[in-house]
Specification:
The complex is a heterotrimer of chains A (518), B (379) and C (197).
Chain A lengths: L3 H42 L2 H35 L1 H35 L6 H30 L4 E4 L4 E4 L2 H5 L2 H31 L4 H36 L1 H7 L12 E8 L4 E8 L2 H7 L9 H26 L5 H10 L3 H5 L13 H9 L5 H29 L7 H9 L3 H15 L4 E3 L3 E2 L9 H32 L18
Antiparallel strand pairs in A: 1-2, 3-4, 5-6
Helix pairs in contact in A: 1-2, 1-4, 1-6, 1-16, 1-17, 2-3, 2-7, 2-17, 3-4, 4-6, 6-7, 6-15, 6-16, 7-8, 7-14, 10-11, 10-13, 14-15, 14-16
Chain B lengths: L4 H36 L3 H11 L3 H18 L1 H10 L1 H20 L6 H31 L3 E3 L5 E3 L3 H4 L2 H25 L2 H29 L3 E5 L16 E5 L4 H5 L5 H18 L3 H23 L2 E3 L9 E2 L7 H28 L6 H6 L6
Antiparallel strand pairs in B: 1-2, 3-4, 5-6
Chain C lengths: L1 H33 L9 E2 H18 L3 E7 L1 H7 L3 H18 L6 E4 L4 E7 L3 H18 L11 E7 L7 H5 L4 H18 L1
Parallel strand pairs in C: 1-3
Antiparallel strand pairs in C: 2-4, 2-5, 3-4
The chains are: A mainly alpha (518), B mainly alpha (379), C alpha+beta (197).
């Protein structure tokens, strides 16, 4: 049986590496679009200041992009390195969007980014602008395909288990691509990226205006970021709502866990704003609830109930029993028996095979699981509620605060003297919130799917590679060590260029070079 | 569906080769240039020239590597799983070295501090040297077969370790890979630079072409005695992916079997030598552009030789022969191969088109004057 | 369905950003028109300059950077050679052309505050550099501006540096003068001195 430590360490490693990766990705996704906006304005108006803006924010984009690429390499490798059973079991389905990501997005993004930085003198205005838009398109499409892949992990449509090859195989690519989970995740995630980048530009421009430097430059950057960012943050919240609704349809356990819905309530269910969820007692202490809100936004109706965790676990118990049956049938098929009725029986019950696999954590044979072990599996068939409950609320709170900030920023950027100090300080100090929202958001997405790697198909603990504990301790240590150093270097460079501002372009037009005359 | 399962498997074996060769001839010279950086660039300006010779295009070239991994995952998921988990530490080392590249290229010249720059130069060297070596070592191990087997539920169990990967034949393969990338990088620098750097590059190109050919010949001789693999049971090319349903035998010299069946295949290793000779001649007479074409041919031939020798094996298992992964029994499903085929057929030519356009935009020499003029915008 | 919405959404969001900034441009252009400008030279007129100079003072404090105020006068020159208004106009026109070449867009302020009197505010320039610039302007005027009867055009310049911790204007401020008025009066004083030399 697989060592628990190996599973835990592998999960920690994947969590750490993906959270690190996602520090840089949203900025890449959003800032590339903002650069395209700035350059479009340059081409439309012919005013040099917009070209300076594109080049300055482009420098910051480059510093960030480098680490996005670096941490991204790890992700591509890690599926095979640390999750080899996963890679075999679902590779037929999962590998395709990743490969398409490479063909459609990575090539375009990486090939043209060099041209973006170094092609100013070699290309016409229109050509260079097109390049910038293609870089933005590339990074956005890259998000699309990875989220099609992740969306499939959350809601595995369009694929079926094949007992001959012992893996999931595609039945319909259309279903895979148009998976409602994938669609909503994609738009929500890129909108989060747009929000992050807008907050980045907003905050730093506010800093320049607070210092009274390069006002014209900062004002224009601020104004663009305020407009784009307002649209972005509205989208991200709307799509967050849509995500919740989709979860209510296809990932009921995740929704119930996020909202600490221990039992199915009389619809429309109340929304628990805050409280202390207690998984053992299956109750939330000191809960503050708002009646009807959860039911209304989660199901968009007044009579559809939100299934509670207790009912889900009861359901899971039955599915685990089905899973045991499916597993024993599978063993017979693997032994070479090919009876017609056997095959038919297996096909009818194979959707619960994953639930049977949950028992592998306690007994390798599955079919000899004791009642105790089955109860343990049932208990662990839902994710841990408390971390999800809090992470979700932190994400939503951050999102709503950013909404307020962008509304204020947008209104003030519409009044010429958008230089009220308190607004600028607000823009600067809330700059970090989108990052908090992004990371907690991913935590909710992934932790909420536990104990599954592929929801209801493949448990996480089964997906790991057969490595030793030391293998992973060393690799995890290596990643943490290197990533921390890289992050420190990146932040150092980023701060240096931010402090210099557009004077770092050395065009003799900006603040730190205004005394280079005479 | 235009093709049947059997044909698609062969097509995808070829595509994988195309992607890996694509990386070798594009990313390969980037790795080579990085290895040569401390030796061909004696001053800070010269080093900036070398870095900027590949600067605008290296990122696009690296995608061929990422794509090879992605295509392996999509078309040969079990092979992806076996190779990446078995080569754990080797890949980790290569990965850590690759980390240094984006940072090295972008951050190196952002501060004027000479120590900062010297450290990043070292980092870039490591970022070129280690992956070049490791990729070759990995390939060598594929030819030897690696000690893994499948359990009944297809769980992969690997019995080797990092030291086991560093066996003599694989080390030779690593040296071939390193040497051919250095040769390729040197020729690229011969194209893109002038004066001192150009001359130094020419010398390196000549030396390492000879070295690569010599090592390749050595490997060729060694293969005659190396244990190869051969499927002994009947092959069902249209069957679903079930590696455990076959029988395999192992024995010395079996990797030359394919050449026996199809003598025309000898043209592949032969063209490596012809290519190498042309590279020598053209580099010496200062026609590095044409030399580059033949360098690409040589690299293609070397990799293709390995692939053709191994066909239909993708990853042989040295301890559980029947667990070996072959072209016929480890691919993705028909639907997946078909979809990926069409996506690739549309996008790969597009990619080659715009990539060559980008190279055209950046054609021409990189000189020290150019660096001075654009001090703050270049790498 | 959401993929399609995304395409629309991005286009809308980008448009919002662009429209917002174009609106800012239009607003600024409008404001520029509303700013009082001297019709002959197109420099700022006296009414607008005080407000702008106060902005520069505030900025200087925020950034802890100096700026220099130059007062340029051709009044003495005109009186000395008893030139008619229309003759002065040609000279002034050319003078301003030359002055403009040295101005940094959006950073420097140039204003016509009297018939033949001008003010230049140069952020980031210290006293020493202001001296260099003043001499350079004098030389350029001498060489490049021709006057009727080929009289050498003598420009009088007085300049003062403002730093946030300067005590150059301490006296005047203590007397109740505004910072800008104090600077101007010192500069005018220096200019008169230079004219009398």
């Amino acid at each position: 049986m697989i060592s628990d430590t190996v599973v835990e360490l592998s999960r920690w490693q994947f969590a750490v590496t993906s959270l690190y990766h996602f520090l840089f990705v949203p900025l890449t996704i959003g800032l590339s679009v903002i650069l395209a906006i700035m350059e479009s304005t340059y081409v439309m108006t012919g005013r040099e200041i917009y070209k300076d803006m594109t080049q300055f924010w482009g420098k910051l984009f480059g510093i960030n992009f480098a680490l996005g690429v670096t941490t991204g390499l790890t992700m591509e490798f890690q599926f095979g390195m640390n999750w080899s059973y996963f890679s075999h079991y679902v590779g037929d389905v999962f590998g395709a969007p990743l490969a398409i990501e490479g063909l459609m997005a990575f090539f375009m993004e990486s090939t043209f980014v060099g041209l973006f930085f170094f092609g100013w003198d070699k290309l016409s205005k229109g050509q260079h602008l097109t390049i910038t838009w293609l870089v933005a398109l590339g990074s956005n499409l890259s998000a699309l395909w990875i989220l099609v892949a992740n969306g499939w992990m959350q809601n595995p449509v369009g694929a079926e288990f094949n007992y001959e090859t012992m893996r999931m195989e595609v039945t319909s690519f259309g279903e895979l691509i148009f998976n409602p989970a994938a669609q909503v995740k994609f738009v929500h995630t890129v909108a989060a990226g747009y929000t992050t980048a807008s907050a980045f530009v907003l905050g730093i421009s506010a800093y320049y205006m607070l210092k009274g430097r390069d006002i014209a430059f900062a004002q224009r950057s601020y104004t663009i970021a305020a407009g784009f960012g307002l649209a972005a943050v509205l989208s991200v919240i709307v799509l967050g709502d849509e995500s919740g609704y989709t979860d209510g349809e296809v990932q009921k356990a995740k929704l119930a866990a996020i909202e600490a819905e221990w039992h199915t309530e009389e619809p429309p269910a109340a929304f628990t704003v805050i409280g202390l969820p207690d998984q053992d007692a299956m109750v939330t202490h000191h809960a503050i609830k708002i009646p009807w809100v959860l039911g209304l936004i989660g199901t968009r109706s007044t009579d559809t109930p939100i299934i509670g965790l207790t009912e889900i676990m009861q359901n899971n118990r039955q599915r685990i029993h089905n899973g045991i049956k499916a597993y024993s049938l599978l063993q017979q098929l693997r032994n070479g028996e090919r009876d017609e009725t056997l095959i038919a029986e297996f096909e009818s019950i194979k959707k619960d095979l994953g639930y049977g696999l949950l028992l592998k954590q306690y007994t390798d044979k599955v079919v000899d699981a004791t009642d105790e072990q089955i109860e343990m599996a049932v208990k662990n068939s839902i994710p841990q509620v408390a971390p999800l409950f809090w992470a979700f609320r932190v994400m939503v709170a951050s999102g709503f605060i950013m909404l307020i900030v962008f509304v204020i920023a947008f209104i003030s950027s519409s009044i010429r003297k958008c230089r009220k100090d308190w607004i600028l300080k607000l823009s600067l100090y809330t700059m970090i919130l989108p990052w908090i929202a992004c990371e907690t958001g991913w935590f909710v997405a992934e932790f909420g799917r536990q104990p599954w790697a592929i929801a209801e198909v493949l448990p996480t603990f089964l997906s790991v590679s057969s490595l030793s504990e030391w293998d992973i301790i060393l690799s995890l240590a290596g990643y943490v060590f290197l990533y921390t150093i890289f992050l420190l270097i990146e932040m150092f460079l980023m701060m240096k260029y931010i402090r210099q501002g557009p004077s770092s372009l050395h065009k003799r037009r900006y603040h730190f070079e205004i005394d280079e005359r005479g | 569906m235009l093709f049947d399962y059997e044909t698609l498997k062969i097509i995808w074996w070829a595509f994988l080769g195309v992607l890996m060769i694509g990386f070798a001839i594009t990313g390969g010279f980037d790795l080579g240039v990085a290895v040569l950086l401390p030796f061909l660039g004696k001053t800070d300006e010269e080093r900036r020239v070398i870095i900027n010779a590949v600067g605008p295009t290296w990122e696009g070239n690296q995608v061929w590597f990422v794509m090879s991994g992605g295509a392996l995952f999509a078309a040969w998921p079990t092979a992806y799983a076996v190779s990446f988990s078995s080569f754990y530490f080797a890949l980790l080392l290569a990965l850590f070295a690759l980390f240094l590249r984006p940072l090295g290229f972008d951050y190196r010249s952002k501060l004027p501090n000479p120590e900062w720059r010297a450290n990043w130069d070292r980092a870039l060297f490591v970022g070129g040297f280690v992956p070049a070596l490791v990729l070759g070592i990995a390939f060598g191990n594929l030819l030897k077969g690696i000690p893994f087997h499948f359990e009944t539920d297809m769980r992969i169990v690997y019995f080797g370790n990092l030291l086991g990967l560093l066996n003599p034949f694989s080390l030779l393969a690593g040296l071939i890979s390193l040497s051919m990338f250095i040769m390729h990088g040197a020729i690229y620098l011969q194209i893109k630079t002038v004066d001192n750097i150009n001359q130094r590059a020419q010398k390196i190109a000549v030396i390492f072409t000879v070295v690569t050919l010599a090592l390749f010949a050595l490997a060729g001789g060694w293969i005659c005695f190396l244990d190869g693999y051969h499927i002994t049971s009947e092959i069902f090319p249209n069957a679903v992916a079930n590696p455990l349903a076959k029988f395999v035998k192992k024995g010395p010299g079996l990797w030359l079997d394919n050449y026996g069946h199809l003598p025309a295949l000898w043209a592949v290793p032969a063209s490596a030598f012809i290519g190498g000779l042309m590279v020598l001649v053209l580099s010496i007479i200062n026609r590095p552009g044409s030399a580059f074409v033949f360098s690409c041919l040589m690299i293609t031939s070397i990799i293709l030789t390995a692939g053709c020798s191994m066909f239909p094996f993708i990853i042989p298992s040295s301890i559980s022969l029947n667990s070996s992964l072959t072209v016929w029994d480890s691919s993705s499903s028909l639907k997946t191969l078909n979809l990926m085929f069409w996506v690739t057929v549309i996008f790969l030519p597009l990619i080659m088109l715009y990539t060559s356009w980008v190279f055209r935009v950046f054609r021409g020499k990189v000189t020290v004057e150019h660096i001075h003029k654009n001090n703050h915008t270049l790498y | 369905m959401w993929y399609f919405t995304w395409i629309l959404g991005v286009l809308l969001a980008c448009s919002l950003g662009i429209i917002n900034v174009l609106r800012l441009e239009a607003q600024e252009a409008l404001e520029k028109e509303n700013v009082a400008v001297d019709p002959l030279t197109q420099l700022l007129a006296r009414e607008s300059v005080l407000e702008r100079l106060q902005e520069k003072v505030d900025n200087s404090k925020r950034n802890e950077m100096p700026f220099s105020l130059l007062y340029l006068s051709l009044t003495t020159f005109k009186k000395k050679y008893q030139l008619a208004d229309y003759e002065m106009d040609t000279i002034l026109f050319k003078f301003v052309e030359i002055l403009r070449q040295d101005l940094r867009y959006e950073i420097d302020i140039a204003a016509r505050v009297g018939e033949e009197d001008f003010v230049l505010a140069l952020p980031g320039i210290s006293l020493e550099k202001a001296d260099v610039i003043a001499n350079r302007i004098k030389r350029n005027i001498l060489v490049n501006v021709s006057s009727p009867s080929h009289i050498a055009v003598e420009l009088a310049i007085g300049f003062v540096e403002y730093t946030y911790h300067t005590d150059v204007i301490a006296e005047e401020v203590a007397m109740g003068m505004g910072e800008v008025e104090a600077l101007l009066s010192i500069a005018i004083g220096k200019c008169l001195e230079s004219a009398l030399e």
